[in-house]
Amino acid sequence: MLSRLALAAVLPALALCACDQPKPRHVAPAPPAATSEGVPPPAAWAAPLIGRGRAELFPGELKPCLGNTDVITRRYAGEPAGVMVVGWGWEPAAKAPPPRVILVDIDNRIAGGGESGLPRPDVPAAIAEVTSPDTGWSANVARAKGPLDAFGIVDGGQALCRLGHIEF
Predict the structure, then answer these.
(1) Residue 66 near residue 130 (C-beta atoms within 8 A)
(2) Which among 127, 136, 162, 166 is least buried, having the fewest CB atoms inside 10 angstroms?
(3) What whole-number distance in Å separates Cα of residue 44 and Cα of residue 164?
(4) pLDDT at 26 over 50
C-alpha cells in the first residue's frame, strides 16, 4: 500500500522532469543586412499597377488560395529604399501557384509586385493538396517599413486571392 502511494506521488514529478523545455513556436530570423543598392524597378507588367487601388483594379471577391507571406529576405538601402518579401502560394481551383503576386499597403494601394515559380519543396511535403514544388514567390517593394498584404493574381489576371500579411 505504501509503495503505491509513494509511486503515485513520484510519478507526476518524474513526468515533469522528463519534459523538455517549451519550444518557441515562431522565432523571427535576424533581419538581413541592407545592400547599398536601391529596389530594382518593377517588372513591366507590375509598373502600371503601382500606386493604384487594389479594389479599382480587382473589384471582385477574393478567390480561395493557400499561401503565406514568410519573411523579408533582402533590404535595399539605396534609392529607393525597400525590401524583398518572399512566401508561397497555391490556387486550388487551378491546381497551380498564382503566377504573379502583388503587395498592397495599408491604404489598399498596390506597392509592389513579383512572380512565383521559386522552389519550395517543403510546401508539398507538408500539404498533400499542393502538388508542385515550385510554389515560392518573391516580390520587391519600395517601402522600408510595412504592413503589407500579399495577393496572388489568378483567373487569367482578373481576380486576386489572399496569400498573407507581413509587418516589418
Answers:
(1) yes
(2) 127
(3) 24
(4) no
Are 70 and 87 spatial neighbours (Cβ–Cβ below 8 Å)? Answer: yes
Which cell is 112 given?
509592389
User: Cα–Cα distance between 4 and 168 in angstroms, integer?
Assistant: 56
* Residue 126 three-state SS: helix
Give the SS3 label for residue 97.
coil
- In angstroms, how far is CA 152 from the centroid of its own chain? 11
Of the candidates 167, 67, 51, which has an alpha carbon nearest to the alpha carbon of residue 116? 67
- Between CA 12 and CA 154 the distance in angstroms is 54
Q: What is the pLDDT of residues 94-138, one digit of tens each?
A: 999 999 999 999 999 999 999 999 999 999 999 999 999 999 999
For residue 103, give the nearest of 116, 85, 89, 118 by alpha carbon: 85
User: Looking at the chain, how many residues does it have?
Assistant: 168
91: phi then psi, degrees, rounded to nearest 5:
-100, 110
Q: Which three cell numbers stand for residue 149?
A: 498584404
Q: Which helix (H) or strand (E) holds 10?
A: helix 2-18
